[in-house]
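Q: Can I see a sequence and its folded structure?
A: Here is a first one.
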Amino acid sequence: MPDFSALTRRPPPGIEARAALVAAAARLWFGTVRVEILNPSVYHSHIRNPHSGNVVGASWHRHAIFLFYFFRNLGSSGIMISRSRDGELTARVARRFGYTAIRGSSSRGGPQAFREMVDFMTRPGGKRFCGTAVDGPRGPARVLKKGMLAMAKETGAWFVPVACSADRVWRFPRAWDRTILPQPFSRVRIDFGQPFRVPPHICPQDLEALRLQTEGVLNRLTDRVDRLCGHRPATPPY
């Protein structure tokens, strides 16, 4: 039976006002940042092109804050957000940025959220985009879970790996994902891996091989943007 608890639970007092404040602060903060796209051909041919087909964007959790802002207002865009109390605030900020927020994660409400996202991605009426952190919500860091690969398989969408870094960042070293936050007036570099489609009838062994291959691509993208921004790439365990 579907879990409607997230819909029937009364939202915390003042949450809409806090969402408005967070969204305004993000626009003010990140509006000062300069962005350099390292692979503009993928960005323009698959992300911005309305005729390229649906896209599943995948990044590590450490990049999520800025990418959440960067991909706002793309049109019909879905984002998977956990059912936690913090997730409620994030979902309301997401709606202010033009996202359709679908609540669930690998640890809570995952199967239902997956089906809702598949339904969202396969609706007619133009291009659709969805994304989430593929090592979240609890890690381990920089280890790819299969969920978004399965999403691309089920929907026929392009799978596009994404990484970002900045020349000046604040780090959260105690966070499991080593979250980074670009400082105001910093220069952010964003890189895209080569888009691919997941075969609809791929066998479990080949899907696992593809998972490992894609994990490697995302880690190389991450190390590349870190180096270009003047940071030493991390070494395992992350």
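Q: Show me another, different protein.
A: A second, unrelated one:
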Amino acid sequence: MKGIARFTKKGELQSKIDRKNEEIDILKIGLSGIAKRCGYKNVQEFYRTYHKSHGAYIAYKEQVAEWDKTYGDDNQKQNKESVLERLKNPPKKTADYQKQKTDRVKERGAR
């Protein structure tokens, strides 16, 4: 009796395995059909194209990160001074220009 029960159980499991394999085959055919409807010869061609585009996308993201690091909003904000700070601390060129201008005025007044 035990041998018959094992044989029956094994047969049931084998039939489940066979059904699942059939489902897998049907799904593979469906996947191939999806790729063909989208214009690819087969699934392998789709994956080749996908991996190329994914590599290009990763390179693009790296370039964007580099650009943001160099020119992004955070970088621009750090370099800007407020108007009040610029009025309190005029650039050296402006201070030199103002000094030259006052020296000229003094020279003209002395003449």
